[in-house]
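To close the section, here is one more complete example, presented without commentary so you can practise reading it yourself. The ligand is adenosine-5'-triphosphate.
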Amino acid sequence: MMISFAVAIVPMAKPSFIRAEQPLAPDLAADCTALGRGAASRCRDIVFVVNPRGANGKTGKEWKKLLPHLRSRLGSDFNICESLTSGPCHAIDITREAIREGADAVIAVGGDGTLHEVVNGFFWGGKPVSNNDQSVHTTALGLIPLGTGSDFARTFGRKNDPHDAIERISKVSAKAGYYASRYKKFGKLCYVIGALQAFFGHYNQDLKIKVDNGGWDVYPLVTALCIGNAKYFGGGMKITPNGHPSSGTFEVVVLQDFKWYEFVLNLHKLYNGTHLSVKNVSSRSASSIEIEEIVSTNSIFVQSDGEYLGFLPKKFSILPGAIEMIC
Ligand SMILES: Nc1ncnc2c1ncn2[C@@H]1O[C@H](COP(=O)(O)OP(=O)(O)OP(=O)(O)O)[C@@H](O)[C@H]1O
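Output:
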């Protein structure tokens, strides 16, 4: 069985962010290449955190093609700092360092995994990271979606066109400055293949769920539980169709006693968001949720934005308005 939750981010003015109550990543030694090379004072206004290995390496290639356009579009308003990630979790460190150094905006360039890491770089020990001089200046978050799925951007109705993303960044540039695996070679189909493969050796599990500090509800034979403050995951599956980053809540969708053939038969509904009317599918909205096994096996896998997040039990909660996002 798998628990997944779509994203942990934000839109417009003061949106919300989903937080896992346990640390999302270790605080690795800060070795942000771009800022650590002594270029911080030159490059700290807008930092592009680029995952060159995203989408099977396509992100790196697309980014190289995009750079000249980006420089000509934003170069007059911003000092542009490009920082390539060297491996998993590096984006977290780069982001934290950029915020501490007073960056006006940090832009994730890659897929949902990269965005996930950048968002987590905005926090440390459950609290927002602040810049070194402790001023009211804040750092905005932006996204150039160049990953395999890039599902978060879909919630905003985006076609995941990087040029559109640059236009959005250029339009709000003044404001930003002010406010202060494995099947990826199959592209988006990798998510369907991965989900089908997950059914083999899969077993349903009885769970208990506590929503918004209420009582515990028992959910027998859970096949999958998905939490989202955005609508999409799995390369365009509208899994939490009522989720939206500005709602201040997330949507919880539970699939119970689902067979692999039901997954196949209902695949089109998962993609267009009409699966909530299917038998054994339920949905509710929440601002915090605790999930535990009825009988503990410590084997219920949790993933977030395609990233491994450990095993149950887990608690997730919304942090309303935690990050200013360029969108
Ligand atoms: N230099 C690197 N080499 C290998 N892996 C990296 C590197 N930099 C970052 N990563 C890891 O790659 C993961 C996936 O990247 P990303 O989300 O950008 O692309 P994707 O998986 O193709 O897109 P999506 O998540 O939208 O499907 C990130 O979460 C990160 O942990």
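Once you have examined the tokens, check your reading against these statements. DSSP finds ten helices and 16 strands in the chain. The mean pLDDT is 79.
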